[in-house]
Amino acid sequence: MQQINEIIDNIKTIETFQIIDILIALLIFLIFRILSTTFSYITIRMFKPKIKNKKQLLHDL
């Protein structure tokens, strides 16, 4: 029971700068999560073979 009370007290003593830090961290996480698909698409496009003729691609292998 004492541990539960300590947790509740810790939650009550959270200050505004801690909330701002948490929100900034969540924002950074969301930005990287959204942009990760864009980064992966760009990387794949950079290293994708430029051959459009599939027969030629199979012949070269």
List the keywords.
61 residues; mainly alpha; rod-shaped
Topology diagram in text:
Blueprint lengths: L1 H11 L3 H32 L6 H7 L1
Task: Please explain how this structure is put together.
The protein has about 60 residues and is mainly alpha-helical. Helix content is about 80%, strand content about 0%. The protein is built from three helices and no strands. The protein is rod-shaped. The model has no long low-confidence stretch (mean pLDDT about 80).
Mass-distribution shape: rod-shaped
Radius of gyration, in Å, reads 25 Å
Query: Which spans of ≥5 residues are poorly predicted at pLDDT below 50?
Result: none
Helix content: over 70%
Structural class: mainly alpha
Order of helices and strands: HHH
Strand residue content: under 5%
Largest sheet: none
Give me the count of strands. Answer: 0
Distance between the termini: 69 Å
Number of helices: 3
Output mean pLDDT. 82
